[in-house]
Specification:
With about 450 residues, the protein is α/β, with parallel strands linked by helices. It folds into 2 domains: about 280 residues, Rossmann fold; about 120 residues, no CATH class. It is about 30% helix and about 20% strand. The protein starts with a strand and ends with a strand.
Length: about 450
């Protein structure tokens, strides 16, 4: 039995590097000229501020433009790009497509731009689970999957298989983060039923403790490609410092589909040893569990923020990070009033606290009849409403320094400014991902 082939190519020129990666793994062999081809990038989140750092968070426009050009040159005409981005209130998917320059792909190549959130969905059974998937995804003859090379604070790594979670609706994503079935045993099934013909892992940038901008980004300059989504992920994980057995969703997928967990059973075309760099995936919590490690450095006492688990939904994660930063700004040297903060879907208060903050609708429901709670402070909305959080905490005498919180967020945004390797033009419309080595932002 032949081994699956994975190509690993150094990223220099977008067009030439990507073409080499695709050619080495014979990446277009499963495509027919008449196919409806859906390209699925990773656009996990986006903020419309000009300073938002997309490095290692979203797929580069440089790779997307080069891919569309290669497909067009090979005679593929029925192309679409689709995604369902987590966005601030009032922002639409079309705004993200515009910011990344995708409108030029529509103008030049007739690429259809699809915001999955605005599409009709159909239920698809995955054993005991039912996920609702956009009809446009189900109607695609082939899917080209273009994730980012990153570690993930709940899933260890986020690569090809994880990127397909973006193909289900919000309710299905919440189901993935359920109490009864482990997250890593849910989304990993999606790849079994979608016609993914080619996976291209965009490693121009990578991020440690992703998947969002809160993590630390690095320039990597790497492309990984394969017609086998699992094999691509195994190689990507290896480069990030993890074997299959270190990544629960890969091990689960391998077990369900009779796949080897040994990287030696993959034919790798290209050098991976020189690209291996171990990146951490978990956010660091204090050993005594009071909260993030920096709480201890600040001297915060009287407050226990329980570490998130993988039942915390995508929509809650960003709000939870904001809540943590707000709590830190409220500390002025005086201990909190023996307060705990719970999140996700299954944490239960064991008592011993004067106040229990229930951050989100799901955790409110999980603890609604909990006799151990002395005083509940419920943030019932889904996702949690930060304005309501600020209001209720103020009623308890906890005042946040909003300006300081915004400054910290801006600090995270501005970390990469002035550093030559962090090139914002790689996330804009490309005038050419060209054969002569040029890649100019429009």
């Amino acid at each position: 039995m032949s081994k699956p082939v994975v190509s690993v190519v150094k990223f220099n020129d977008p067009y030439l590097s990507l073409k080499e990666a695709i050619d080495l793994c014979d990446g277009l062999k499963g495509l027919n000229k008449s196919d409806k081809i859906l390209i699925k990038p990773n656009l996990v989140e986006w903020y419309m501020e000009e300073s938002f750092p997309p490095f290692g968070v979203v797929t580069t426009s440089a790779v997307m433009f080069a891919l569309v050009r290669i497909l067009a040159e090979e005679g593929f005409r029925n192309l679409a790009i689709g995604e369902a981005t987590v966005l601030p209130l009032g922002t639409k998917g079309r705004d993200v497509f515009k910011a990344l320059g995708y409108e030029k792909l529509r103008e030049d190549y007739g690429v259809e731009l699809i915001d999955f959130k605005e599409e009709k969905h159909e239920g698809v059974d995955f054993d005991e689970l039912k996920f609702f998937i956009p009809k446009k995804v189900l109607e695609a003859d082939k899917i080209i999957n273009v994730p980012v090379l990153k570690t993930h604070a709940m899933c260890t790594v986020s690569l090809g298989i994880k990127n397909l979670k973006g193909c289900v609706d919000a309710k299905s994503k919440k189901l993935c983060h359920g109490k009864e079935v482990d997250l890593n045993h849910t989304f990993s099934r999606i790849a079994e039923k979608l016609p993914v013909a080619l996976t291209i892992i965009d490693g121009v940038y990578t991020i440690e403790r992703g998947p969002t901008y809160v993590g630390q980004a690095f320039r990597k300059d790497l492309l990984i490609a394969s017609t086998d989504i699992y094999a691509a992920d195994v190689v990507g994980a290896e480069i990030l410092g993890y074997g299959v057995k270190d990544v629960p969703h890969l091990e689960f997928y391998a077990g369900r589909n009779g796949r080897s967990t040994d990287i030696a059973d993959i034919e790798i075309k290209g050098d991976i040893d020189s690209h291996k760099t171990h990146l951490e995936w978990e956010h660091v919590w204090a050993e005594d569990g009071i909260g993030p490690a920096f709480f201890k450095r600040l001297g915060i006492t009287g407050l226990t923020v329980r570490k998130y688990d993988n039942t915390l939904c995508t929509g809650c994660v960003d709000r939870f990070n904001t809540a943590i930063n707000l709590l830190a700004t409220s500390f002025k040297g005086k201990p909190f009033d023996n307060t705990e903060v719970l999140n996700g879907k299954k944490m239960l208060s064991k008592g011993g606290f004067n106040k229990t903050v229930l951050f989100g609708k799901c955790i409110c429901e999980a603890n609604k009849d909990n006799p151990n709670i002395k005083k509940a402070i419920p943030i019932r909305s889904c996702p949690p409403n930060i304005e309501k959080f600020i209001e209720l905490m103020s009623e308890e005498g906890i005042e946040f320094d909003i300006e300081a919180s915004l400054k910290f967020r801006q600090f995270l945004f501005d970390r990469y400014k002035g550093k030559e390797e962090f090139d914002f033009s790689l996330f804009a419309a490309q005038d050419g991902a060209s054969r002569d080595g040029s890649c100019l932002a429009r």
